[in-house]
Amino acid sequence: MQALQDEAERQAAEVARLHATTPPQLYAKDLDAFEAALAERDAETAREADLLVVQQKRAGRGGGAGGKVGLIALFLLFFFTLRCCKGG
Q: What is the mean pLDDT of the chain?
């Protein structure tokens, strides 16, 4: 029972905080969170692209189809990045 009361108090405090927050403040907070998530995704994409370049160079040294495999991997990264950005 105490846990429910504690949860009700936390929820009431959150509602009071939201009522005290102006729409521009909510927008700015959401925008900051979006920008942080976007920066993290961009950093992760850059790390993956760097890794693919290294893998492609290593695969190209072996001759044969290695360079093609690296190129395919780079294409797939590009494709999934576009798909991610479109929300699909």
A: 84
Residue 40's identity, in one-letter code, is: E
CB of 60 closer than 8 Å to CB of 70:
yes
* Cα–Cα distance for residue pair 28/58, rounded to 1 Å: 45
Amino acid at 67: G
Q: Is the dihedral of CA 58, 56, 40, 80 positive or negative?
A: negative
Using an 8 Å Cβ cutoff, are 55 and 70 in contact? yes
Count of other CB atoms within 10 angstroms of residue 69: 15
- Using the CB atoms, write b or e for 31-48: b if 16+ within 10 Å: eeeeeeeeeeeeeebeee
For the chain, what percent of residues have pLDDT higher than 70? Answer: 82
pTM > 0.85: yes or no:
no
